[in-house]
Request: fold
Amino acid sequence: MSATIIDGKAFAARIRQQVADHVARMKADHGLTPGLAVVLVGEDPASQVYVRSKGKQTVECGMASFEHKLEADTSEADLLALIDRLNADPAVHGILVQLPLPGHLNSDLVINRIDPAKDVDGFHISNVGLLGTGQKAMVPCTPLGSLMMLRDHHGSLSGMNAVVVGRSNIVGKPMAQLLLGDSCTVTIAHSRTRDLPAVCRAADILVAAVGRPEMIQGDWVKPGATVIDVGINRVERDGKSRLVGDVDFDSAAAVAGAITPVPGGVGPMTIACLLANTLTAACRTHGLPEPEGLTA
Ligand SMILES: Nc1nc2c(c(=O)[nH]1)N[C@@H](CN(C=O)c1ccc(C(=O)N[C@@H](CCC(=O)O)C(=O)O)cc1)CN2
Reply:
């Protein structure tokens, strides 16, 4: 292995410390405590773990955490009514509805009910449009965390060839917009892209967000490229359950210049950026200066 390992766990800890320091100053100087409301519908085990972590890390940063756990058969009307209450609550600066939602609920309708100023996931159509037009937006947490790691590693990304494999609204599309905003030449590739290995081999920055375990092989990676692996896939190996990314780590790390591991890469940055977005939302709501280095 020759690649530098980009340590998302350590990076996320630094972000959380920056958030905690800023929150402490906000309390002391303005008597304000940022608040994050997280809504979980149903009992998906992975979602329960993520929501617990979000609540714990929110409190550890000195912010207020409001958890709303609803039954799996909650009606759309009841969920929308809860969002309306959170939109109107001045103690709540950020609202997040944990995804995926149970099948009977329309995720687009639910997300677009959130006040865009409190949409700390950056999934509301207004924030999608603001990001796409290069305006100040709430930015989705996983792409924001990936961008922070890339900026930290490279300094400027200007002029680099970036390939994003995956076209989801949550990761692939906003990641491409952010890289374009940093003046990369961006290609969005996907499962139907012709000669996907050759497209990937042209990338100085390769972002894998395709949701297929270890699909991207070492011989798809340009020597010296930076590989950001957004995939989190649980697979069975030798009778044990393990997490792997969308990149075949060992073969890619032998070729890449830098690579994020799974676990311990992009994943921890997702929650750290959620905390940063909650702080940013609170600052914007109260007309205070935004935290430096924690926004796109
Ligand atoms: N409303 C949202 N729903 C979902 C999002 C999101 O950003 N907003 N993202 C994912 C889940 N997610 C946060 O919600 C998330 C996923 C993974 C991690 C993480 O730290 N992963 C660790 C491994 C954890 C493990 O052992 O299982 C890692 O990669 O090191 C944090 C948050 C879907 N839903």
